[in-house]
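Predict the 3D structure for this chain.
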Amino acid sequence: MASAFIQAHEEAELQFLSEFCDRGSLTDMECKVLEESRSQVVEARKFIESLVEECDSSKNIGLGVMAVLLSSILLNDYAMLTKEFLDKGLFKDAEAEHYFEHTEHDLKQLRNCYNF
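Done. Predicted structure below.
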């Protein structure tokens, strides 16, 4: 979940900057939004690092945590790519829904199998 949170915030920041920076400088409120988002990303990264460090004493668990994080990142990337293809008209709604359902199922299975 934390890796998906980070990825979502990073993508949102890119979208935010592309929409608001084209017109010039950011307002104080826009800067505050970016600062808060970046702060939350830092906290999420610290959380992930603490999990890895906590599990580092037992190499097998530490490697398991990293494998789960990598799997989660890849599945989230897959979902975002599916949405991008849908938005570009490369997938029909039904096709994209099929892929989203599989991705959601895989993410749930990942969470159920590895409860750190």
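The longest helix spans residues 28-56.
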